[in-house]
Amino acid sequence: MADIEQQHIEAALKQYIDPFLQGDLVSNRCVKKIDINGGQVSVEVVLGFPAEGYKATLADALHALIKAVAGVTEVQLNISSRIATHAVQKGVKPLKGVKNVIAVASGKGGVGKSTTAVNLALALQAEGATVALLDADIYGPSQPRMLGVPGHKPESLDGMSLEPVMSYGLQSMSMGYMVEEDTPMIWRGPMVTQALEQLLRDTNWREVDYMIIDLPPGTGDTQLTLAQKIPVSGAVIVTTPQDIALLDARKGLKMFEKVNVPVLGVIENMSIHICSQCGHEEPIFGQGGGARMAEEYKVTLLGALPLDMAIREHGDAGHPTVIAAPESRITEIYRDIARRVAAQLSTQSKDYSYRFPTIMVENT
Ligand SMILES: Nc1ncnc2c1ncn2[C@@H]1O[C@H](COP(=O)(O)OP(=O)(O)OP(=O)(O)O)[C@@H](O)[C@H]1O
Predict the structure, then answer these.
(1) What dotted CATH number matches 6-81?
(2) What's the 119 CA to ligand 1 centre distance in angstroms?
(3) Predicted complex: ipTM over 0.90
(4) Whole-structure pTM value
(5) How many other C-beta atoms are found inside a 10 Å radius of the C-beta of residue 258?
(6) Would you tell me how many other CB atoms lie within 10 Å of the CB of residue 194?
(7) Where in the numbering of this chain does the MIP18 family-like domain appear (predicted)?
(8) Ligand 1, closest atom to CA 312?
């Protein structure tokens, strides 16, 4: 029998189209090593995104494909994740202790941006990443309540910098920790961005793979300045299927285009209502809006969440769905979205700056 060659194994692996990368693992440089020893084949796969909830499915699929190659008697697979640091806007300094920042934005208020942001952060963590959440929704910081730590005050160990507030394993910071909940905050444009930048840079973030930023709703000057000044590697836009919300969401896409931040995709929230009594599905706010927008603007539809009372109840009670109902269908959707967000980011250009030593040129 002819010997098994590397290219036979590569061809077999290429047949598997990863649903999160939307491409095969060989072309996406996730296959790091192929060892062939007689009929024994061992393959090392390193994904650029966290995938605790997906590794077993992936292993089964790859195993079957390799096993089908003529001459293969034994397959050994080693699948792991390594999260790289990705490039941010030119001229913006990356954050200490944070590999990647992902901004979550919406064209208008009330579409469920904050709820989606916290569940996305917790879902990335469930997939195996170290995650932080910055609540930049300065007009209505809701993350302290959703994380179950309202009224909590961040500690300072040195009187200069702040320790992130820990909740469910997430590192978080919010203007909501600094002021009383019922204190009206009257912010003017430059004050907002300055205060937020300071909060962001003065916090001791610890080995964070992904920081999720819950931006204020809308696409005005404040949002534009934040998108310009905060070092962001990618953005996610939350929308409801209503046409008007979609029009606003398109403005969000344009805003990130303007500041050269790649849009990783769109999340459609409240996309369908499932009747808790009879299970009937009803598209209350219209159908397929997110998919239409994704197609028109050539961005990925990252996923769609139903309008479900449990999502609101869990958030209000201070334990978001990913924590309150980890085995539920909704958590599965959030984790699926989290993997897709991280996988889309992994295909963006990396930040190689840390690899190069500073070169000093001495004039003699
Ligand atoms: N998929 C969903 N199903 C049911 N309720 C939801 C869903 N998503 C969000 N909600 C609820 O909708 C309300 C608004 O959500 P949220 O505060 O996350 O929106 P937002 O876009 O961040 O709003 P704002 O613009 O005020 O910051 C909340 O009560 C939340 O619990």
Answers:
(1) 3.30.300.130
(2) 12
(3) yes
(4) 0.92
(5) 12
(6) 13
(7) 7-76
(8) 31
